[in-house]
Amino acid sequence: MGYILTILVVYTLTMFVATVFMTKKENDVKSFCVGNRNTGWFVSALSIAATWIWAPALFTSVETAYRNGFAGLFWFLVPNILCLVFFIPFAKKIRQEMPEGITLSGYMYWKYRSKTVRNIYLFQLGALSVLSTGVQLLAGSSILSMLSGIPFTAMAVMMAVAAFLYSQFSGIKASILTDAVQMILMLLISLCFMFFGVKNSGCIKNLIEGFKSINGDINSLFSGRGLEIFLTFGLPAAVGLVSGPFGDQCFWQRAFCTRKDRTGRAFLVGALLFGIVPLSMGMLGFIGAGTGYMAKNTGIINFELVKTLFPEWAVIPFLFMIVSGLLSTIDSNLCAVSSLATDILKRNTIRKTKLAMVLMLVTGIAVASIPGLTVTHLFLLYGTLRSATLLPTIFTLKGIKLKPEGVVTGIVSALITGLPVFAYGSIKDIAVFKTAGSLITVILSGIIALAASRDRQGGSNGWH
């Protein structure tokens, strides 16, 4: 128990001290949410990468490499990188159109002058922040509770408090600074694990053998088991991941914070830096499969492999990396919710902003405590949730004219149709339903938004 608490205390103190000495305490809501809007591209890139390294990047990457071989890791890693690259022109466009913006929901209100449009975006963005926080707490608290003997809920509360302590000091500035520190640590530690993992497992042969998965039945991306993995995991994951930055206020917030002429560079470098961590961790999954290691719990196989392949002390940097990765996303979610509060509260204050952060943490802990939920299930669930706003957002930023009622009808229809189909497929583990649910959510919102925006006379659409 002792070293787990020591890791949490050392981590929290390190981030808090860095925040206090390198940023100033913010009492202005706008500065708390977007800083001075000229953050350098490399620091922003580190922050973007750290924010995108959530629980699945550290856990699902290893699990899918172990269970599904190179096909599983491919369908997790490639969409994860490309979605940030695909986001670049839209991040640049929103800065050009609304240079003083703070949130995506605020931008959509500015475009449509509709509180209903704004509110449905607030629901999607807010729900995503809560679910994302829940999955980080679920992953981190499960493993730390198991190691320390501290009850799950108590561990979740400690992690939540740790993220809040430094985030509430200077808001987005604290988040970006600590993200940069966390990302450097994660890069160094994950690369060391990959290098020494290959060395300790005997030879490259075990790594290559692991490309076929623990069952040795993966030989292609689009035939046999490879095709099954694409349909059950790859396609729904890709749909959710492409939607990822578009449905996540964390990334719109960083677009508004980064120096305007360096936004594209920040997201491109961030995407590449991000890829190093799940790729390195996925290699451990290949090594485990190649050596024939039989996992006791595939959900935390990364931890099992670290204990098996490395000296006992290696658990400490591994856990430090896990804590860094999970809390970097939680602190980003805290800042995202603080920015969303500017769209909810008419007379917003720093006190109310911080209260919104606390409420999100409480709700996130409640989500993490729901019995039977897994990291992978939540990952796919909120991936589908954010897909509902993907096409209306893209259409709007591309200048395709929609009507407010079209946007609202499209998103609501997608949510009430696609999510239940996807949920049923996930509960019953039926590939066709999971895939259909993901695609319905994305496509239906766009089709209905366009159709409902057409004038009855067939004329052109117009902004309201």
Order of helices and strands: HHHHHHHHHHHHHHHHHHHH
Radius of gyration: 21 Å
Mass-distribution shape? globular
User: What percent strand?
Assistant: under 5%
Count of extended strands: 0
Produce a short descriptive summary.
This protein has helices at residues 2-22, 29-34, 41-52, 55-58, 60-97, 104-112, 115-148, 152-170, 172-200, 204-210, 225-243, 249-257, 263-290, 301-309, 315-344, 350-368, 375-387, 390-397, 404-428, 431-452. The protein is mostly helical. Helix 5 (60-97) packs parallel to helix 11, helix 7 packs antiparallel against helix 17 and helix 11 (225-243) packs across helix 17.
Can you describe this structure?
- This protein is mainly α.
- The protein has helices at residues 2-22, 29-34, 41-52, 55-58, 60-97, 104-112, 115-148, 152-170, 172-200, 204-210, 225-243, 249-257, 263-290, 301-309, 315-344, 350-368, 375-387, 390-397, 404-428, 431-452.
- It is globular, with a radius of gyration of 21 Å.
- The model is unreliable at 456-464 (pLDDT under 50).
Topology:
Elements: H1 2-22, H2 29-34, H3 41-52, H4 55-58, H5 60-97, H6 104-112, H7 115-148, H8 152-170, H9 172-200, H10 204-210, H11 225-243, H12 249-257, H13 263-290, H14 301-309, H15 315-344, H16 350-368, H17 375-387, H18 390-397, H19 404-428, H20 431-452
Helix pairs in contact: 1-8, 1-9, 1-15, 3-9, 3-12, 3-13, 3-15, 5-11, 5-12, 5-13, 6-7, 7-8, 7-15, 7-16, 7-17, 8-9, 8-15, 8-16, 9-13, 9-15, 10-13, 11-17, 11-20, 13-14, 15-16, 17-19, 17-20, 18-20, 19-20
